[in-house]
Known about the structure:
The protein is mainly alpha-helical. The protein is 69% helix and 10% strand. It has 2 domains: 1-88, Winged helix-like DNA-binding domain superfamily/Winged helix DNA-binding domain (Arc Repressor Mutant, subunit A, Orthogonal Bundle), CATH 1.10.10.10; 95-178. It has helices at residues 2-12, 17-26, 29-33, 40-49, 73-87, 95-102, 109-140, 147-180, and strands at residues 15-16, 53-61, 64-71. The longest helix is centred in the last third of the chain and has 34 residues, at 147-180. It starts with a helix and ends with a helix.
Amino acid sequence: xxxxxxxxxxxxxxxxxxxxxxxxxxxxxxxxxxxxxxxxxxxxxxxxxxxxxxxxxxxxxxxxxxxxxxxxxxxxxxxxxxxxxxxxxxxxxxxxxxxxxxxxxxxxxxxxxxxxxxxxxxxxxxxxxxxxxxxxxxxxxxxxxxxxxxxxxxxxxxxxxxxxxxxxxxxxxxxxxxxxx
Length: 181
């Protein structure tokens, strides 16, 4: 994913690694793509070595050198290949949560409920942060957040809401078991 993000940024315009890192941090890439912005430098080195990007200019700032990169034709072709791969990725389920729910009967009910409520709290925080991030992106793009970006962000919010509903249902079943004892 990091290679795709670097190539996408460079397909817009040449830029330095620092600029790309800032963009990824400002767009909350860690949350929606699982990419740590700091990993961009390793990806840049690999992409350059493989001929997908090249240095387009070098500036000296004090004792530091700032390289600006641009995408090559080979990089553009590779980017399209990565996009196709990403679009064809399979559905992923939260196997850890599902397994935990399946084996929750081995815990005492209060422990299970406490853990699930903590999970629910984490989901609520995540939802608030995604909504705040969406607002930041809208500000950064002068209100011109792409329709595709909006679809993805809204899907993330709906996924969190569905997971919250699942947890609420599980808590309801556990509470029902408590009342029947």
